[in-house]
Amino acid sequence: MNSSESDQTTDDWGRVSEDGSVFVRTADGERKVGQWPDGGPAEALAFFKKRYDDLAFEVDLLEQRVKAGALAPEDAASAVKKVLASIAEAQAVGDLESLNARLGALTATINVRREQRKAERAKKVEAAKGQKEKIATEAERISENNDWRNGANRMRELLDEWKALPRLDKGTDDTLWRRFSTARTTYTRLRKAHFSEVNEKRDSAREVKEKLVAEAESLSDSTDWGPTSGKYRDLMTQWKAAGAAPKGVDDQLWKRFRGAQDTFFGARDAANTELDREFAENAEKKEALLTEAEALLPVTDLKAAKDAFRDFADRWDAAGKVPREQMKGLEGRFRKVEQAIRGVEDDQWSRSNPEGRARAADTVAQLESSLDDLQAKHDKAVAAGNTKKAQEHASAIEARKSWLTEAKKALDEFSG
């Protein structure tokens, strides 16, 4: 080997022996890393230094990933251990100790990160414990209420929230889970029992409403307006009291029930419209009759008035019913004519009553006799010079004369 070749057989971190063996220098001394029998020493060193560069690149990349937090501490530690093992047996020439040192520094960083992760996890676990306690408490509160729709949705949300939380220590996690699970089970059982009862009630309501629909349909052609209207009101009361049937069935039954009602009340309204028209015509007839009857007043010929009113009354009844709001006014006018004629009749009867005439004549006779007696007493008192008594009798005489005048008028009426 010439001097030029001898200069190329050694390096700061390794050398090539005469037999082509390649060594790397370490703190513990030289270590053979390979052999290069077919090429020159420079070529051998370059090859093994290239291997070192590959190791250094791998360390560089690991450092970047660890410092960036791209690896979990456990994964990072495993990667460092793997690279360290590669360096320990590396067939490369270079500053292997510096690579070991850099990996050692990474191990320290990883340990710090591990402790940080541990602290963070402990904090998260503590927070998760509080959240799981809240979830269990809320689930227990829901299980004690009867909000069957919103409660079920919230229970599902709480389960999703629970699954998203980290596990706690086994004892605590199991205890809280039992609380939560028991609350869910209790709520689910009660909810199923509730809806089972609801379904039973709905089935019962369906049976009741089917009967009500059948009865409503059987009445839809009735023309007995008043009583049938009352029956439909009773059916509606029973319908409301029956409760809800299953949703689809309830809608169909209501459609049939309402259809039967509409048929009946539509026919009733049409009939009432016809009656209203007829009653309005009747009112016009009675207005004309009243004009005719009121022309009988004042009564001058009682017999003719009575005959005419009897005919009028027959035609009045034959005219039929009138609208309710006009009935009172028309009937009032009818009664007024009737009472006027009856009043004239009563007056004539009272004036032709023999008993009444006898009483009137008797009253006149008694008053005349009383006047004669008072006149005699007055004359006697005057003759005796008793002025006071004479004055008293004179006053009494004047009163009797006034009464006698009225009594004679009454008697004259009977005579007329």
Summarize the structure.
The protein is mainly α and 416 residues long.
Care to describe what's here?
Helices cover about 80% and strands about 5% of the residues. The chain is mainly α and about 425 residues long. The protein folds into 5 domains: about 5-120; about 125-200, no CATH class; about 200-275, no CATH class; about 295-350, no CATH class; about 355-415. It has a 4-stranded antiparallel sheet with strand order 1-2-3-4, with helices on one face.
Write the layout of secondary structure elements.
Blueprint: H1 3-7, E1 10-11, E2 14-16, E3 21-26, E4 29-35, H2 41-67, H3 73-88, H4 96-143, H5 148-164, H6 170-219, H7 225-242, H8 247-294, H9 302-318, H10 324-351, H11 354-383, H12 387-415
Helix pairs in contact: 2-3, 2-4, 3-4, 4-5, 4-6, 5-6, 6-7, 6-8, 8-9, 8-10, 9-10, 11-12
Short descriptors:
416 residues, mainly alpha, four-stranded antiparallel β-sheet, 12 helices, 80% helix, rod-shaped, disordered N terminus
